[in-house]
Write a structure and sequence with these properties.
Length: 170
């Protein structure tokens, strides 16, 4: 099992989106790469420097990191600084926070392809994970508990894996 940390705007939608893919063993929302003290959600909303982030434990045999990152880039605006959809502030910045140096070649390959597609520099940070603090329990699997909750990710993306499987079965 490998772990990667993905900041892609509001962590509720990113968690729901990533949970659908075969090979994602576990996700947890939290706050990453800010000051070295555990923040509350209210602290993060006051722009203390943490990014809303999803910890993703994945089976690389079922879901290679490059494919996981391709999914990630599908649901973010990689050129947007501190904003995704209607959410703005430093906590909504985008970032790929890695835990192993061996992950860097896959990250760099996907990043280069995405930057070429965008035709301009990306606003997605690529850096080692400095810290991660689990978010409050009510944030975990939030959109499962609150199906009508706001999310910048269009709802059709939450069934992408099922759609792809159905198309493959036809």
């Amino acid at each position: 099992m490998k772990t990667i940390y993905l900041a892609g705007g509001c962590f509720w939608g990113m968690q729901k989106f990533l949970d659908q893919f075969d090979g994602v063993a576990e996700t947890e929302v939290g706050y990453a790469n800010g000051p070295d003290e555990k923040p509350s959600y209210e602290d993060v909303c006051r722009s203390v420097g943490h990014a809303e982030t999803v910890r993703v434990a994945y089976d690389e045999g079922k879901l290679p990191l490059e494919k996981l990152l391709e999914f990630y880039f599908m649901v973010i605006d990689p050129r947007s600084v501190n904003r995704q959809g209607g959410d703005c502030g430093i906590q909504y910045r985008t970032g790929i926070y890695y835990t192993e140096q061996a992950q860097l070649p896959a990250i760099e390959a996907v990043y280069a392809r995405e930057q070429e597609k965008a035709g301009a520099p990306l606003a997605v940070a690529v850096e080692p994970l400095r810290n991660f603090f689990s978010a409050e329990e009510y944030h975990q699997k939030y959109l499962e508990k609150n199906p009508g909750g706001y999310c910048h990710i269009p709802p059709r993306y939450f069934t992408l894996a099922a759609q792809q499987k159905k198309e493959g079965d036809e």
